[in-house]
Amino acid sequence: MADKYDVIVIGGGPGGYVAAIRCAQLGFNTACIEKRINKQDEPALGGTCLNVGCIPSKALLDSSWKYHEAQSSLADHGIKLGDVSLDLDTMHKRKDTIVRNLTGGIAQLFKANKVTWLQGSGQLKSGKQVEFSPLEGDAQTLQAEHIILAAGSVPVEIPPTPVDQKIIVDSTGALDLPEVPKRLGVIGAGVIGLELGSVWARLGSEVVVLEAVDTFLPTVDQQIAKDAKKQFSKQGMDIRLGARVTGSEMKKNQVVVNFTDKDGDQQETFDRLIVAVGRRPYTEGLLSQDAGVSLDERNFVYVDNQCRTDVPGVYAIGDLVRGPALAHKAIEEGVMVAEVIAGEHTQVNYDAVPGVIYTHPEVAWVGKTEEEVKESGDAYKTGAVPFAANGRAMAAGETGGMVKFVADEKTDRILGMHVVGPQASELIQQGVVAMEFGATIEDLQLMVFGHPSLSETVHEAALAVDYKAIHVAQRRRKK
C-alpha cells in the first residue's frame, strides 16, 4: 500500500465509488477507503444504497408487488393461479443475491480502473493527510493532493422509540424482518416509511403510519400528494397525520406506542415498529479537530456549488452536504468533483434533480411545485391529466394517478413536472431532459409521442397547460 496518492476518497457509496472511478479514468492515482462489512461478514463497496437502501428495498418492492398481483389482480387478466403462498426466505435470498452481485461488480470496476480499495476507515487531518485505520492491522498516515469526503448518512433515531433491530427497527432492519408482522407500525410518512410500509402491507401486514406533521408529503406538489395519499389509503395503509410519538413500551414480543394527535393522547400496539424519520450526515470520526472543514448547524459539511470545502483540495459530496439525500445526486457530484480536480468546468444542475418514491403507484417530481411558484409571486400556468384517459394505462390496469406540469406564464418555460402513477420513475426523466435543455411547454406540445404509451399522458398534460388537451374535457381556470 502506498502512502501517497493523487486522490483519496473516504466512503465507497454511490458518490464515493463513482468519484474514485472517474478520478482514475482521468489519470489520477486514486484510493477509496470503505469500512463496510456486509451480512456475509465480507468487506463490501456500494454504501447504504446498494447494501441496505435503494437496491434491496427495490428488490422487495418488486417481489411484494408480484405477490400482490398474483393474489389480487391476475385473475382480472384471465390468469387463475389457485392458492398463492409466500416464501419470505426465498424473497430475502433473491434480494441478497442482487445486492452481492452489484457490490461485487463495483469491486471489479475498481480493479479494471486501477482504483486502490483500502478496507477500513479514514479520518481527515490537517495538511491534506488521512489517517487510515485498516480492518486489520495498525493505522497509517496517507497523503493526497485531493481528498473527497463521501461518508454518506445514517438513519435518525428518536428517544421515544430506541431501535433494538428486533421489535423496533430502522430502515436497515426493516429489510430483513424474519416474518410478516400481523400489525406493523411505521413512524414517518416520508419516502422510506412509505416504501417499506407498502412492502409489508402487500405481504399481509396491517400497517399504521404515524407522521408528526399535518401535511402529507409537504415537499411534493400537493395535488400529486393528495392523489397519492388517497391511493395508498385504498391499498389499506392507515396514514395518520399530525401524530407525534411521545413514548414506547415493550410488552412481551410487542411494542406499545404512545402518541398525540388532534384528539389527544393515543396508543397503538404493534408486532414490529419501523422508525423512518429521516437520515443525518455520518461525520463521526471523519474529521480531526484540526482538519479545518466547517460544518453547519445541522452537521452537514459546508461546501460551495462545486462541492469545495473551506480547505483547498478537500471536497465533500452526497449525503454529507446540502441538498436531497439521493444516490443519483451523490453520483453526479462525484463526477463533477473528479472533473473539477482535472481542471474541467462542470456543474450539477440542482434545479433538475428528480425525486422518486417507489411505491405503487410511484410518485416522482422534478423542479418546482405549484405551491413554490405561487409563493414566489411569479405568474404561472399548470396542466394535469389523469392516467385514466390513457389507453396503455387502461390496458395494463394502471389507471390511477396523473401527470402535471407547472410552467412560467410569461416565458412558457417548464418550471416543474410531477407524476403519480405507473412508471413515474421513468416518465419523470422526460421532464428532467426537457428542463435541462430549457424547453418550453410548447416544445413538448409539438413533439410526437408514440401510441399507445404511458408517455402520451405527458404529452396530454403539456397540452392541458394551454387548454389544448384532446382526450380530457377541460374547464378554463378563472383569472
Automatic annotation (TrEMBL):
Alphabetical keyword list = Cytoplasm, Disulfide bond, FAD, Flavoprotein, NAD, Oxidoreductase, Redox-active center
Q: Could you name the domain of life of the organism this protein comes from?
A: Bacteria
Catalytic class of the enzyme: oxidoreductase
Pfam families tied to this protein? Pyr_redox_2 (PF07992), Pyr_redox_dim (PF02852)
Query: FAD/NAD(P)-binding domain spans which residues?
Result: 5-334
Q: Which InterPro entries match?
A: Class-I_Pyr_Nuc-Dis_Oxidored, FAD/NAD-bd_sf, FAD/NAD-binding_dom, FAD/NAD-linked_Rdtase_dimer_sf, Lipoamide_DH, Pyr_nuc-diS_OxRdtase, Pyr_nucl-diS_OxRdtase_dimer, Pyr_OxRdtase_I_AS
What's the catalysed reaction?
Answer: N(6)-[(R)-dihydrolipoyl]-L-lysyl-[protein] + NAD(+) = N(6)-[(R)-lipoyl]-L-lysyl-[protein] + NADH + H(+)
Please report the name of this protein according to its UniProt entry: Dihydrolipoyl dehydrogenase
